Amino acid sequence: MYTLRIIEETRENENVPFEQVLENFELGDSYSFIKKGCSKEFDRIVNENQGGDASEIKAVICGENGKVFFIMKSTKCMEYSYFIMTESGKTLERL
């Protein structure tokens, strides 16, 4: 069983500290990682789920359970970290 852990850090402007939110999402027994520009599958998934706007999306994670997650680009006021975790809680990979 795999879990996607997202650490999202946001702030109102560059002069204030980040606030942090950690989220964990079950992916199932398998998942797909699709990078932007590497497959037409990326474009199809973005079109179906985002209306085609992929300007801030770096990649897509598709879980065995049918859930789709977008790996977003970080900005000066929003930073993202993504990890695939194993069932035992160990980090399998950092995306």
Describe this structure in words.
By secondary structure, this protein is mostly beta strands. It has one domain. Helices cover 12% and strands 51% of the residues. It has one helix and seven strands. The strands form two sheets. It has a four-stranded antiparallel sheet, with no helix packed on it. Strand 4 (57-63) and strand 5 form a beta hairpin. It is flat, with a radius of gyration of 14 Å.
Itemize the secondary structure elements and their pairings:
Elements: E1 2-10, E2 19-28, E3 31-35, H1 40-50, E4 57-63, E5 68-72, E6 78-85, E7 91-94
Antiparallel strand pairs: 1-2, 1-6, 3-4, 4-5, 6-7
* Count of DSSP H/I helices: 1
Unreliable segments (pLDDT under 50, ≥5 consecutive)? none
% residues in beta strands = over 45%
- Radius of gyration computed on alpha carbons: 14 Å
What proportion of the residues is helical, as a percent range? 10-25%
Strand order of the largest sheet: 2-1-6-7
What sequence of helices (H) and strands (E) makes up the elements? Answer: EEEHEEEE
Whole-number average pLDDT?
92
Our count of domains comes out at 1
The class by helix and strand makeup works out as mainly beta
The end-to-end span amounts to 18 Å
Total count of strands: 7
Outline type: flat
Taking the sheet with the most strands, its summary is: 4 strands, antiparallel
In a few lines, what is going on in this structure?
The chain is mainly beta and 95 residues long. It has one helix spanning 40-50; strands at residues 2-10, 19-28, 31-35, 57-63, 68-72, 78-85, 91-94.
